[in-house]
Design brief:
Elements lengths: L2 E6 L6 H11 L4 E7 L1 H6 L9 H9 L6 E5 L4 H8 L4 E5 L15 E5 L7 H14 L13 H5 L2
Length: 154
């Protein structure tokens, strides 16, 4: 059985993440996804997530390409994870190209996959921030009339 691993925060899950996970799974039989804990994101990556670790874990566990979700608690654990989970292939987006080549010393193949160019969590956050600064929508579930007869009077 060929085992693959990838790492990430996976906050604001989107189709670019799904593309990465699908392509990573195509490289083997069993996909391990290590997601950054809230503490690791806050203390080492200096970013806050919208969803908590447990919420992000639950989302990833629901994806058919993912076989196991584990916590990423620090940068250094990657070396030991390769052995603990019997990893054959380490996968990351190509925005990290060259940063994890040292894992080849652990006997694993290192693959950098192209990102889905038009989407990222950072772009989504920026777009949402821009939309919020323009003003909130006044439309919500409370003021939508779903009565077909009432709509036909317009």
């Amino acid at each position: 059985m060929k085992r693959v691993i990838t790492y990430g925060t996976f906050d604001l899950l989107h189709y670019g993440h799904i593309n990465l996970l699908r392509r990573a799974k195509e490289l083997g039989d069993y996909l391990v996804v290590a997601i950054s804990t809230d503490e690791f994101n806050r203390n080492e990556k200096h970013k806050e997530t919208y969803f908590s670790y447990e919420q992000r874990k639950q989302l990833l566990e629901a994806i058919r390409y993912v076989d196991l979700v584990i916590p990423e608690e620090n940068w250094q654990q990657k070396r030991s994870d390769m052995h603990e989970y019997h990893i054959d292939t380490f996968v990351m987006g190509d925005d990290w190209k060259g940063k994890f080549d040292f894992l080849k010393e652990e006997g694993v193949e290192v693959v950098y996959l192209p990102r889905t160019p038009e989407i990222s969590s950072s772009k989504m956050k920026a777009d949402l921030y821009d939309a919020a600064s323009v003003g909130e929508s006044i439309l919500n579930h409370d003021n939508i009339n779903t009565d077909e007869e009432a709509k036909s009077n317009f």
